[in-house]
Amino acid sequence: MPTFSPLWRNGALALGLLLPGAALAQQPAAPAATPAPAAQAPDTVVAKVNGAPITAGDLAVASDDPALSLPGVDEAQKQGLLVDYMVDLKIGAQAAEKAKIGDNPDFARKLAYFRDKLLLDEYLEREAKKAVTPQAERALYDETVKAMKPEEEVHARHILVDNEAEAKKIAARLKGGEDFAKVAAEVSKDPGSKSEGGDLGWFTKERMVAPFADAAFKLEAGKLSDPVKTQFGWHVIKVEEKRTKPVPSFDEMKEQVEAYLTRKTQQDIITKLRESAKIEKTAAAPVAPKADEKK
Predict the structure, then answer these.
(1) Contact status, residue 235 vs residue 212, Cβ threshold 8 Å
(2) How many CA atoms lie within 13 Å of 42's alpha carbon, on the beta-carbon side?
(3) By the 8 A CB rule, do 216 and 237 touch?
């Protein structure tokens, strides 16, 4: 059964506390997924620890934590585990408060750091959502597609052997009418394509080593090559088809477009903030060496 990621490796686990996921692992598997619980108002109290409330909003925050990812666990089960996790977290935090951990200067510095980090993350996420609109995505896609140059692709098969003499014998068999796929399955040394009858699918010229690519792209569709030598051995190539590489659709590119726009928006925000800020580095500030100064 899945367990929580060891989020508390330096915290609760060191105290010997049991992660909820570990408790779950001792139970028999659920016979079927249970219905997801109905949405609750963020301030709905779901548990109390020594009088301190844990709310549905707290669970939502924990649920967004990548360290608490539970792939394969249905939502109702996950929510139950998160309640147990938050209970243990609250117990540990209360114990840390009694131990005056919060009074430690190092802890105060960590708290300030993570507060700044969370503020920045939330700010960048909010601003990126404003900028990454369907119109901006479409405009970037159209601009990118317009700049793409037509690129030729080849769909080819090959048979790989150890030496030229063997390659010549295979070429003779193929020119004599034997089926390429059957011969490839019988003698090819390429484990990646042998079971596919030597089929390499569609590829552009730069994806293959130069001697192989040069030979394949010179051939007409349906033709066989003479033996071709590369660092992998000797090849006999058959070109099945040629085409101009199709432009990927907007739907195929949408995730990449969104990720690029989000990243660029956030980088631009930081750049503008730096330009408008008064930044002073003291003589004590470490300076990273330039690339050409590194040894």
Answers:
(1) yes
(2) 5
(3) yes
Q: Which residues contact 60 (CB under 8 A, 6 or more apart)?
A: 42
pLDDT tens for each residue of 62-115: 998 888 888 888 888 888 999 999 999 999 999 999 999 999 999 999 999 999
- Domain positions in the chain are 12-28+37-99, 152-244
What number does CATH give the domain 152-244? 3.10.50.40
Rounded CA Rg of the chain: 30
* CA 62/CA 86 separation, integer angstroms: 8
Beta bridge partners of 242: 154
Say which residues have a Cβ less than 8 Å from residue 263's Cβ, sequence separation at least 6.
Answer: none
DSSP state of 220: P
Query: What count of other Cβ atoms lies within 10 Å of the Cβ of residue 89?
Result: 20
pLDDT tens-digit map of 252-278: 999 999 999 999 999 999 999 999 999
Dihedral (Cα; 178, 183, 185, 190), 10-degree rounding = -140
Q: How far is CA 41 from CA 64, 74, 198, 293, in A?
A: 17, 21, 59, 57
Measuring CA to CA, how many Å separate 125 from each of 16, 34, 61, 273? 37, 33, 15, 15
End-to-end CA distance of the chain: 48
Among 189, 198, 195, 187, smallest CA distance to 239 is for: 198
Is residue 195 helix, strand or coil?
Answer: coil
Given a contact cutoff of 8 angstroms between Cβ atoms, the answer to whether 12 and 92 are in contact is yes
- Count other Cβ atoms within 10 Å, centred on residue 21: 19
What residue type is assigned to position 164 of the chain? Answer: E
pTM: 0.59
Kindly report, residue by residue over 18-61, the tens digit of the pLDDT.
344 433 333 444 445 555 566 789 989 999 999 999 999 999 99
Q: 3-state DSSP call for residue 235?
A: strand
